[in-house]
Every structure is written in C-alpha cells, then in structure tokens.
Amino acid sequence: MIMRYSAPMPSITLSAPAKLNLFLHITGQRDDGYHNLQTVFQLLDYGDELEFDLRDDGEIMLRCEGPTALEDVSADDNLVLRAAQLLKGAAGDSLNQQLGANIKLYKRLPTGGGLGGGSSDAASTLLGLRQLWNLNIGIDDLAELGRQLGADVPVFVRGHSAWAEGIGEQLTPLELSGRWFLVIHPGCHVSTKEIFSHPQLTRDTPAITMAAFFTGPTRNDFENLVRRLAEPVDKALIFLRIFGEPRMTGSGASVFVSFDNEAQALAAQQQVPSEWQNFVAQGVNQSPAWEQLNSVSLHPG
Predict the structure, then answer these.
(1) Does domain 180-284 have CATH number 3.30.70.890?
(2) pTM > 0.90: yes or no
C-alpha cells in the first residue's frame, strides 16, 4: 500500500554506485528462459550521480551529462525514465499527479560494462523519487518494482553488498572486507543477451554454499567465453595478472583486480594503458545512496 506524507521535498541528490560480481556461477536454465545463478554483489564507492528537482506540472524530464553519457538512448530503453514512470504509476491516486521531476544524470560508468550502471541509476531513481514525492512505500515493494526493470536493480534498491541466487533477486546481505579495486573497461561492448544465449556458455555449474565462496575456488562462468569472443577483454585480464588474480564482472566487458589498500591500487592504475577507461574504488557494504538518504535534509530546489 502506498500513502503520501504531508509535503513533497524540493530537491535531492543521490549516488548510483557501481557493483562488481566477485564470482558468478550459472547453475541452470529455467523454463522461462532465464538462468539461475549464484553471485556476490560487491558495491563500490564510485558510480553515477542523479539530481532530482520537483516539478509542479506532472512532467518527468531527464538530462544526461558526463564522460559516458549517451545521446541516442530512447525513452523506452532508458531505465531512469522507465523507473520514474513505473513509480508514478504504482503510486496512482495516492500521488498528486501534478508532481513531477527534473532529473539530471551524471554518467561515469560505461554502458554495458558489467558494472550495473543502468540498474543502479534505476534504483537510485526509485529511491530518490520516493523521497522527493514523499511516498511511504516499503522497501520490499520498491525492490519488486525494481525487479520489473531488471534482475540487478533490487540489490541497489536494498543498498547492501549481498550474496544472490535465483536470477539475482534472492539477496542475503554480506559484510565484506572493504578491499580496493582497480577496474578497467577495455573499450568493447559485450551483449548480455547474446552471451546468455550462446551455445558454448557453461550452464551447469554445481551450486555452492555461502561459506564455500569465502574458502574455496570460484570463477565467472561468462569469462572464458567472453575472452574468446572479445579480444580486448582477454588483453585486459592478461595485463591485470601483473597485480593479482583478475576477474571479469557480470557478462563483461569490465575486469578488475583487488588490493589491500588504496596506495597499491593507485600505483597499479598508473600503469594502465591510456586507451582503457579505468578507475580505482573501494568496496563498501552499504550503498552511498542509502547513506545520503539517511542524512538528507530539506534544501531549496
């Protein structure tokens, strides 16, 4: 059930953090075509940013800026706009339909990089507009709305690093060690849809326990296939072997390696070839967006 608080907020700014899949096992394919998997979502202290300003004409307008912003994404494909309209539709008569929003999205995360950028943007849109419009909607209901937009959206809505099963929506919060990561996007695009449907994809990895993740060997079941299909991913993983045991995140194309501290990660970053987009970030257990929500105060729009 959705109810309204007494007055809307005029403005709010939220992060939309990246995620890494510390491992990703595909344990089977379902009758509906989706795949069952096991993974650990590690949230990062780096990502996109969204600003929400209240409108009084019912319109929802989006402006994109930043180094990875795309100009040609249609409204039907834009997860931010889809999330906003989905929330407004779910609110129905409990929301004054004259309330709308100007949304500014600052993009740092590459599209299709396996970092969850679009899903995180959608989740922060749900969280931000819930706050902006003062909707009293529970987190379970908000996560369910997010699931309708994509399997990775609920983990960003709930805002905690997590063990995930099912199609990625069955989440158990985890406390991880807060290691530092060097993340490289090697400049190629990997189609998630094509990789999931590829006949050579491993789909029968035995399920493991959560304890086994911390003590035993794991892998990303997409990685070997993507390395054969996308040479830049293979080259980036070979490069990162200098520093540790690298891994691909999601279905690619981004790859990463972890370090004990920031100084080590920054030193490694200095050696990354200039043609590869890259960043250093620390793993966090709670989403920066949730920290911002917990400390938000009213301010002029």
Answers:
(1) yes
(2) yes
